[in-house]
Amino acid sequence: MNTSITATDRQFRILYVCVGNLCRSVLAEHLTQRAITEWPPALSHRFHVHSAGTRGRDRQPMHPYTAQVLTARGASPAAFTTSRLTAVAIRGADLVLTATVRERDDVLALHPAAVRRTFTINEFARLAPPDGGGAHEADPDLPEDPVALAQQRVAAAVRRRGRTRCATGSSVAPDDIPDPDRTLDAFDDCATAIDRAVQVILHALSGPR
């Protein structure tokens, strides 16, 4: 039996990273997955999403407030357990998105070669051109394969790095999504911020549909 992966089986793999894999990366993973399930099957099955924590423990449940805000947004929190970040997971990802600059640095300490595909969540949302840098359906240079297109968008974000500045004036690093305080409202606000960034990211990665 032939078990080789064909071009149409190849998936674009997104890895979200925070500290414990209890809150922010879990929210990003599930909100991304919720959005992807609304895409046509021919597109949705070409994307894979997972998450991990730089200092988390394996096989722990998500934070109960994380589960609550996900359920309220129509994203199923069932059957999830935490994962500790590994170099193997980083190597297998086409795009690594972290909650903060600190986690981005931790990713690169584990696997320096991932520098051209590792961003904070907000950084990538800021850098990835929503139209693919002017690409549209009639553009003959626009890849038909969704994985190739997503990889092209990551490359475009890398080129924009250093040329696009984010706003300053906050005590929090501009591209960071801080850990939510210990209240349900804080988790809800965090989920809102992540969901907003996820929508921008997925629009950039998936192109015209």
TrEMBL record:
Annotated SMART domains: LMWPc
Name of the featured protein:
protein-tyrosine-phosphatase
Membrane-spanning parts: none
Q: According to the lineage, what is the superkingdom?
A: Bacteria
Q: What is its EC number?
A: 3.1.3.48
Q: Where is the Phosphotyrosine protein phosphatase I domain?
A: 12-204
A Pfam family assignment: LMWPc
